[in-house]
Amino acid sequence: MAAPRSRDHRVLVPVDVLGGQSVPRTVVDAFASVPVTLLAYREIPDQIATSHARDQYGDRARAELEELRSVFEDAGCVDVSTRLVFTHDRLKTFERVAVDEDCHAVLMLNPAPKLESVLVAIRGDVNLEYIADLLGTLLTGTDLEVTFFRVIGDESDRDAADELVETAADELEAADVDRDRIHAQVTLEGSPTQAILAAAAEHDMLVLGESRPSIRRFIFRDRAKTLARGTVDPVLVIRGEYLEEEEESESDDGEANEGDESDDGEADRSGENRENGG
Q1: pLDDT tens track for 120-164
Q2: Runs of H (alpha helix) within the chain
Q3: How far is CA 66 from CA 27, 41, 72, in A?
Q4: CB distance 9 to 100 below 8 Å
Q5: Which of 77, 120, 207, 214 is 20 to 30 A (C-alpha) from 228?
C-alpha cells in the first residue's frame, strides 16, 4: 500500500463494536492511504448512565477497538487514532468527535463485498476543489473509478450541470487521478434522492458533499440521512471547510459523562467541563 499523499485529510470511522459491526476488508484497504480516527461507540438508553455502561462493557469494547486498529495498521495505514464512547446520542457524538479530531469526512459503514467504483453526488459548486483533493488522497494506491453525478429537475439546467460535473472531474484530475478513471453523469429526474439511490446501486460506495456547517443537521437530518439509510453501500460524507461557532458550541449538548476515551485510555473531560459550565 502506498504511503499517504497528504496528511491533511482525516476520516472518522464510527463502529458499533459491541453491536457486532465490523469494517469490511475492502474498506480497510481503500482507506489505508488516509489518516483515520476509529470511533468505537455504543448508544445506550437514556436511563442507563454512561459511566455504568463503561464500567460494564469498557474492557470488551477497548479490546475490540485495539483489534480494529491493528487491522488498519497491518493494511499500511500509518496514522490511526482511536476514541471509545458510550453515548445517549450517537449522532451528536459523531459530530463532536469529527470536530475534536479535525476529521474532514465521516464514513457510514455498510457491507462492501467489493470496492471498485465510487459515485460522488454533487449538489452544487460548493467545495468542489476540497472534495476532489480529499478524493485524490483517498484514491492513492487504489484502482477505484469515480463518477461525478448531478441530478437536474429541468432540461434547461443541463448545460450548467454538464459544466459542473466536468469541473469536478478536472479538479480530481488536478489531484493526480488519471482521467480515464474519472467519469461524469447528469440525470434528469424529479426526485434527486431516488435518482442518487438508483445510481448508487450501480456503484460500491457513495460520496456526499456537505453544504451546511453542521454535520448533524445536514448529514443526519436532511437528504443525506435518507440516502445513507437507503443505500446498501458505505457512505462517505465529506464535511465542509467551515463550521459556525454557534453550531460547534451546540454539539456537546447532553454529552457530559458520555464515557469518551481517547488513545491514551483517559476519559475526555473537555466535553464534561463544557456541559457542567467548567
Answers
A1: 998 776 678 888 888 998 887 788 999 999 999 999 999 999 999
A2: 25-30, 50-74, 90-100, 128-138, 158-174, 192-200, 223-230, 245-250, 270-275
A3: 17, 13, 10
A4: no
A5: 77
In contact, 10 and 33? CB cutoff 8 Å: no
Angle at 223 between CA 220 and CA 228, to 5 degrees: 60
Are 122 and 233 part of one and the same domain?
Answer: yes
Task: Report the DSSP beta bridge partners of residue 11.
Answer: 36, 105
**Is residue 145 in some structural domain?**
yes
Q: How many domains are there within the chain?
A: 2
How confident is the model over 12-63, as pLDDT tens digits?
999 999 999 989 899 999 998 899 999 999 999 999 999 999 999 999 999 9
| Cell numbers for 140 | 492513492
H or E segment at 38? Answer: strand 36-43
Q: Do strands 182-188 and 105-108 pair parallel, antiparallel, or not at all (unpaired)?
A: unpaired
**Which backbone phi and psi does 64 adopt, to 5 degrees?**
-65, -40
Rounded to whole angstroms, how far apart are CA atoms 188 and 192? Answer: 9
pTM for this one?
A: 0.79
One domain for residues 128 and 83: no
**Residue 179: which domain range?**
117-238
10 Å Cβ neighbour count for 264? 6
